[in-house]
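Consider the record:
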Amino acid sequence: MPNDIPTLHLDTVLQNHAQDMSGKVVAITGTTSGTGLVCAREVAKKGATVLLLNRPSERAAAALEKLQSAVPEGRFDAIDCDLQRFDSVQNAIQTIQSKYDTLDVLVNNAGVMALPDQATADGYDVQMQTNVIAHFLLTKALFPQLRKSEQARIVNHSSMARLGPPLEARYFEAAGGQLGGDGSEEENNSFQGPRWARYHQTKLANAAFTYGLKQKLEAAQINNVLPLLAHPGLALTQLQITSASTGGMEADSDLMQRAQSAEDGATGIIRAAMDPGAQAGHFYGPTAGWKGFPDLLEPEEALYDDENIRINWEGCEKAVGAFVVE
């Protein structure tokens, strides 16, 4: 894979689309590498207290040290949070609630891609629980802290993989390991087959969650919480390396030779987290799809389709309980 990709857009986003974050508390999932690490670094530079939500690992410890070195004056709080275990997510929620009365930004960034057909300890597909259901749980449980912010933001991360068939309720069931298998090598190398179908479901679900939440906030006349969506385009991150190591794609695929840097891939969530002009439902990402400046995008109809919203919301609530927006 290329490792010397120039970063083209990060400085412009930070200069023109980011506000001072002093006094704000920002929670980000998946900050050990890639887009989450970059986002954590940049919001810390702007003055935020940054909660780093990662499962305990040497990578998490190393990332904390890297962030502290990059931003010596930064305020970081590492909180154990394994999205593949609901009990770990609940423990992280309790820790956050005990330490922070108000939460200003929640960036649901963490994700896995094209993993084998495996169940988590809770029985759900590993991709669906990590990318979607655990973030739904975090958001609903921390919603009271977000409501106390002058202007809170909930940033969900999608991708180009959002494009495709509609959501299906079966992917939200506790049926991990029974959702199509792992596919052939040929399918995986061409981004097709059951692994990629499951990944697509998660990226569309994150978008449907954003616009379903927007509807519920509007119905409740809640104006101080902004649901926002971003996608990174094609960015070189640990996500591809992990996928390749488990047979999900070629480690040096032709597609990845055209990737942009992790820094530029992070600009969508950075803009969603800090752009002073952000409004509910804004969607940031490269207009060309694969790479480029994180423009304000027009969401495709599938992202706010009523049936997709219903399947996502009901599936997540069945897994982790009701999310009452009030």
About this structure: The first strand starts at residue 25 and ends at 29.
